[in-house]
Amino acid sequence: MNEESFYSPFISEDGKKKTIGEIEFSDVQRMMEKHLEEGYQLEFKREVSSTVKRKIPNIIASFANEKGGWLIFGVDEDDHSINLLERKEYELFINNMLKDVTNPIPRIVTRFLSPEDHPRQGVFVIWIPEGPNPPYMSYGKIYRRIGSGTSPVTEIDDRYHLDRLYQKSEDQTQRIEEFCTKELSIYNRKWPMHGKSYIHYGMCNMYVLPLYDLHLVEQMEEERLKQYILSKSSEPKHYRLDDESTVMLHTPFVKASYSAESIIFRSTDVIDAYDKTIAWEQFYNGSAKFHIPIPYMEESKQIHDVLKSSISSYIDETIFEQFQYINGPFFLTSLISCIGGYIDCMMELKAELEDMIIVIDLENVRNDVLYFPHEQFQTFLEEEGLVFSDKKQYRFNRSFKTTKLGGNLELLAYVDYIVTAFGLSKNQSIDFLKHSLNQGKNIQFFDNN
């Protein structure tokens, strides 16, 4: 979300707009003391009655269709007095309602704010960001904001408004598409030999876009932000691979330089290795780009020997020279630690960060094999044969769907995307990764049992 479209009725003492993750019950009290009125991006409800419940999806959809807004339960619409609600699972039933009656489902972020002397009572606050894919429909109708109310849109009378909603969706898609491009001089290539041109190998590019502007340089000035990310990236972190096991990983970034509205971090400070370094471009609005050169195995003869002894379905053994063999454990752990490191840094700066768009591109990966150097993978080769990428390019999350983060296991959804490009399933890849890490010397592996 851009700054112009972000509205907040909660203002800090130094005049900055507060996000939903920063507000407290006292902020609601101050808002009421200022006699703030309902409006285009703000609506109050005294209670969550049966009548109000049916209107909630309409209100949320109307905010998502426009500039976003705030829906606050526990504030009287008429006299603006605070009416404390009993603490209940409001978010759960509202999300269930949205799943049942809205399409597409708008994103919401919620807080239940209690006074210190009544921890079981309070007000329930919903922030609805401007939706990236309007129009949002509720009960089969499109709703918009008119003043401080919600009104359905009719195709005959409101053709201009409908066209504007569709155009807004197209504009948002175009902005995301323009962001998801590799602009840094990071390549994965082999130096020319005997007058031949460069050999270009695979790249993995990840693009991360939070739902709204995080204003990172308001949290800390640029130099502190740079040092903060460098320091955080050097700290190993625990990631769950499944319900039973955890791994400790990190990808340390050691070099940083400033760019236009961003800081570029690299995993090496050796200039000669810049074309094969992992690069993290962190923008001040919270968006980020990761460029990961795909790591290939160097022991080609050893790999060919394993394949010849494990696979019977081939005629000429030179066929194995036509494939490139990716270091599966190193590649997958780099993916997990890069996106996990980003989330860890941003969550500490902005506690409410949980909604984002993550797009992943694979380049130059045709005939690439995701290889794991252990007996379990050899057994797989004997049973299934050689699996590899059939395509040169892949893009995952083409429709730019928003992800709601809820823990480390959600990160593995993106590993799922990657491994399917190379013919493996999620369960197979996680099992191969666990066996690899158990054998590793520099990566600690934990079994929760």
Give an overview in words.
31% of the residues lie in helices and 24% in strands. It has 449 residues and is an alpha+beta fold. The strands form six sheets. Strands 12, 15, 16, 17, 18, 20, 22 and 23 form an eight-stranded antiparallel sheet that branches. Strands 1, 2, 3, 5 and 6 form a five-stranded mixed sheet that branches. The protein has a four-stranded antiparallel sheet with strand order 4-7-8-9. Strand 7 (137-138) and strand 8 form a beta hairpin. Helix 8 (328-349) crosses helix 11. The longest helix has 22 residues, at 328-349. The two termini are 42 Å apart. The model is unreliable at 441-449 (pLDDT under 50).
- N→C terminal distance: 42 Å
Instruction: Look at the structure and give the mean pLDDT.
Output: 86
Question: How many beta-strand segments?
Answer: 24
Q: Number of helix segments?
A: 11
> What percent strand?
15-25%
Q: Which value, in Å, is the CA radius of gyration?
A: 25 Å
Low-confidence runs (pLDDT<50, min 5 residues)? 441-449
Task: State the helicity in percent bands.
Answer: 25-40%
